[in-house]
Amino acid sequence: MGADDSVAVSTGMSAVDYVVLIGLLGGSLFIGVYHAIFRKQKSTADYLVGGRSMPLLPTAISLLASYISAILILGVPAEFSYHGSALWEAMYSNIIAFPLVAYIFVPTFYRLKLTSAYEYLELRFDNYLIRLLASLTFAMQSMLYLGVVVFAPSIALHTVSGFPYWVSMVSIGLIGTFYTAIGGLRAVVWTDVLQGVLMLGGLVAIIAIGAFRIGGLSEAFRISGEHGRLDFLNFDPNPFLRHTTLICVIGGIFNTTATFGCHQTSVQRYCSTSTLKSAVWTMLLNIPLLTLMVSLGWIAGAVVFANYAECDPVLTGHIKNKDAIVPYFVLRYFSGTPGLVGLFVASLVSASLSSVSSLLNSMAAVVWQDFFSQLSYFSKKDEQAQLNITKALGFTFGFMMIGLGFLVSNMSGLIQTTFTLVGAIQGPLLGVFLIALFVPWANKYGAVVGMLCGHALSIWITYGALNLTAKPPYLPLSDQNCANEPWFESAYGTNKTISGHFPGARYTYTPVSPVQPDIEWPDKLYTISYMYYGALSCCVTMVIGFVISTLTACLVNTKPDVKLLHPLVWRFVVTEDEKKEKSNYGIKPKLDGPRDEKCNCSSYTLSSEL
Questions:
Q1: Predicted model pTM
Q2: Is 505 left (phi over 0), alpha (psi -120 to 50) or beta?
Q3: What is the DSSP code (8-state) at residue 588?
Q4: CA-based nearest residue to 393, from 190, 143, 166
Q5: Which pLDDT tens digit goes with each residue over 319-368?
Q6: Gap between the terminal Cα atoms of the chain
């Protein structure tokens, strides 16, 4: 998207708005500087996992803030306004996905006390290559996602103030990079708490002011329903539809499990808490927290749409990017109160910074632990030198992130772009972790081949989908009531005509998104719902990994270390003789036991009774 893709409106931000924005952003910088000066990190472990002593509630909020970002505030209301509410039903999957994460991933990773989640794969398969592939997968997904996160608030800043996109992206990238690199995980967690409060405040303000203008929330939902925006409980099994209840729930389970279960940012959060119980509750608390925040985004979408239901700003030419509808709404109706626009922009930028800081910190952890620390030149350096290298990595990734912001600016829609990137790249990662935990005979051959095949499928489908010229069609839009809008008359005059035709309207327009044409095979494959990308690539990884591991079992003679398997399968791999002899498996695991230097994991033994 170029600099002309949305039209700046109204009078822009006032001096008070800029003061509010700068003041709130200064708070984030202050937290980073405070932890760099007064809470100095003494080691890379202190810098990357907060000394494994982070409190429960701030950690849970930080985990939430790491993933919702500005995409929630901009993308979700835009999705509702132009495509309807169907995607909200992905929230049903939270009830299944988060308990799965708490039961499958949290106990295993917490007990191992690893800095990098992907170190587990090397321990499990006794192979560095699979760890390397997983780390590269994480790095690739994180950098692309960061590009989306940095680009999102630039839409709002351009709309409300006319800032060039590149100025916004560079500014946000530099601020997030600075306080993350100098403050470490503690700075990231506490700034996430502040930024989470600002995000909540921004959404509530949109809902309150928008609902007041149209006569309440019930009126907003009535208008949305009349215009076909409320779409629930559609159980059509057709996988080529964009969103249905089944697609959202099934795709949501895989995407959420992958994101919160084996993604480095999540693992780093729940492993930074002081006890296993806190780690589990960090995950479970995100069921109500995430559902609440995302639902507020959809409610904000209903309110914004209801205000523009009869005079859509895309049709009138006020904006040409659907993701600009929220900042356009804010500027139109918030500008009468000094400082309110600045508060909204601050909440939006804070949402972006929360994800930027979390992912930069996680990427520094992975690259240090999985790459640099494996080289004797770096591993022999003292703690302070290692800490300085880790901080330098944070700065490096920050600059790369800014460059990728320009790349993703050409993709279509924040919501679809985000789910596409996360699902396509993270699906194979989830698959390889699941076979590692639940298939005792899974080996390095199956893991490597399965993961490569999963990635090949993801790349093939994603590339084909991005090359299709057809884009998701908009639901019906209207400009029938524009003649009664004073702001429309003042902007365009009484004789303004937009090319095209809209039956029954005073003004005419060019349809912004034609009905999507039927696509023939084999291109039809590329139209499968993007919500299924993660599920497909995960299943391919698991099936191929299972088959290859079975066929090559004779080539691997070593028995897997049972403490690297999930407790559910212990009873199938521990013999009665081993239990009687009280060998390596006879006692209940000690959750906070001393670390075994040889295997770099917690020293404990296991029992099939758990």
A1: 0.77
A2: beta
A3: P
A4: 143
A5: 777 878 888 888 788 877 777 888 888 877 777 777 777 777 778 778 87
A6: 54
